[in-house]
Amino acid sequence: MSAKIKEAVRALLAGGKIKGFLGLKRENGHILPHLFTDPKELDQLSLGDWRRPGEARYPLNQILIQLAIEYPNDTFAVLVRGCDERGLRELFKWQQLREDRVILIGLGCPDELAKACECEKPFPDSLVDGPRGEKAGSQKVAHVNEMDLDTRFQFWKAEFDRCVKCLGCRNVCPMCFCKECTLEEANLIDTGEVPPANPTFHLARALHMVGRCIDCGLCEEACPADIPLRTLYKKVADIVSETFGYKTGFSTEEKSPLNMIEVK
Amino acid sequence: MAKKRMTVLQKLLDFSGIHPERLRARWVSSAEAAEFVREITEFVEDIKKIGPNPLRRRKAA
After folding, report:
1. pTM of the predicted model, to two decimals?
2. Cβ A244–B12 below 8 Å, yes or no?
3. How many folded domains does chain A comprise?
4. Which of A74, A105, A129 delimits the end of a domain?
5. Residues in chain B whose beta carbon is closer than 8 A to a beta carbon of chain A?
6. Quick one: which H or E segment has residue A104?
7. Which residue, among A215, A43, A252, A6, has the nearest Cα to A128 in the 3D structure?
8. Model confidence over B9-42: pLDDT tens digits?
């Protein structure tokens, strides 16, 4: 499946249009993020398929932000799935990356992955390779919605009580770009306590994900305590969509309802 | 902006099993004492109807 992607990247590199292509590479049995600058390296290109399709995923957009800081005048291409593309749109609007300095190399997700993610749109518009998959409905959120108030409380209490406050969910998040973080603000979240204030800690993060979370699911993958974070943030997306009619990452123009830069 | 945040947070609280009416935001000026009293009295009455806070119960246990 990677042939078309290799071809597209090779053309970009040969044309001198880009400084490099940020993708994944297979090396010594591992799949790692890599900045491809030489077409010869492309033999090692990986799409993250390991035991399952798309099993190895990294917050490439987060790395891209670092690259853009180091090389502000260069253009980079980046491997994007549907969620990554949504993320880039938001990052452009939040002015964390310049749209004219990023070239998207789109990869559509196979059905298996789209279903596991319960993805709203499992392919990017900048599709280079891979299928244009169907939207998969979310049963995880519906399952919690159906509980009564007290059962929901007990459910989340038990889940959040396993939190070891490793901050992995925040650190892996491609949309967490703040320099100062509420979660580390001792006046707001007590320190020296595990689990962290339940549910304040997780709800604070959830509220900050409004108009930012693009449902990539990396937080849930990173969580060592298997807290169903994705279910929580999927609900955030549902709330934003129902309340403001805003679908995070779907528009290149319209800004998030809680984007402070917006002046009305 | 604050109003938008409140709306989202209320719905989030509901999803987390905390009665959304436990959170309320009202805009009352310092010149509107009667309005303030009415809002707070109403809030206290509503909270009493909802009953004890599950989070508090947990701390006592």
Report:
1. 0.91
2. no
3. 2
4. A129
5. 1, 4-5, 7-9, 11-19, 54, 58
6. strand A102-107
7. A6
8. 999 999 999 999 999 999 999 999 999 999 999 9
